[in-house]
Amino acid sequence: MRWRHKKFTFMVIPDANNKVMRFQLSAIILVTGLIIAAALLASSITAILLYQGNTGQIGELKQQLSSATGDYEQIIDGKNEHIDELQTDLADLSEQAKKINTRMNDIEKLESELKEMAGIETKDSDKAKVAGKSSTGQETDDEGQFAMDGGKGGEELPVTEEEMDLLVDQTMNAFHSLEDQIEWMKPELELTKEAVAKQQKLLAVTPTIWPTDSRRITSTFGIRKDPFTSRATYHAGLDIGGDTGDSIYAAADGTVIEAEYSSSHGNNVLIAHSNGLRTHYSHLSKILTEAGTKVSKGDIIAELGSTGRSTGPHLHYEVIINGENVDPRPYLKATRRSK
């Protein structure tokens, strides 16, 4: 351990004009200084290496943070686009609800009109709808009708959250109202369907069509001057002029009960319908049916002629209700094609 007591002399020679400076340091101090210097150097190198490593990690973290931020921004942009699409879809749904409501009101009006045509008594609520109120209590006049077509325009303004909430509530209420409206209309339409079916059956057996294609009336129902004697006589039917061979149609569904010849009516056909109704066709040139045959409204049963007590080609047409002849003209409402 003698080296601890040794001393080392260090000389500093600045230049030729200054004195030489001498320093003596013991071995312990010198070794301690070297150790401290080495430790400081090692610490500095370690600090530099750690700084460089941390700098790389910080750069990597910055890149990761930037990438994550970009991803989140894309996600947010996608969410915003999705929200915009949902808002647009909701607006479309709201418009569809309004359009459906308009169509439902049209159906209600049509149903009421069908009831009137079928002779069904219309309830006050139905009349109110026809007058301009729907079952949801909304105005349905022409000014309030909603149409998807036609011109549109206006300033493009952003939609607030409160406005979207209100639109959601309005759309939900509209569809709930439509559901109630449909539930209400189901039994009403069933009743109307049954009534119209009954009316169709009644119409089928009611002589409502012209028995000829001609509309030329040559002699009316009631008292007239007889074409042979020129005296006032009672005419029990309607004479319709035409050409020999023109088709004669059954005025309603029924059963042929007579198809024969008589001196006054010539070739004639008598058809029985329901409810005590009968129709009689006279002065025919040819009979195309026979007694017992079931005929439908508009079927060809004969050809126009001038047989029997007749002055020329025509059809003598009678409508008989419970054995009494009535004026046929009120029954002549439609053609064979629109029966």
TrEMBL record:
Lineage: Bacteria, Bacillati, Bacillota, Bacilli, Bacillales
Keyword Transmembrane: yes
GO molecular-function terms, A-Z: metalloendopeptidase activity
Domain spans labelled M23ase beta-sheet core: 234-328
Gene3D superfamilies: Glucose Permease (Domain IIA)
Pfam families the UniProt entry points to: Peptidase_M23
Matches recorded under InterPro entries: Cell_wall_metabolism_enzyme, Dup_hybrid_motif, M23ase_b-sheet_dom
Organism: Cohnella luojiensis
Top-level taxon of origin: Bacteria
Region (Disordered): 121-150
Protein name (Swiss-Prot/TrEMBL): Peptidase M23
Keywords: Coiled coil, Membrane, Transmembrane, Transmembrane helix
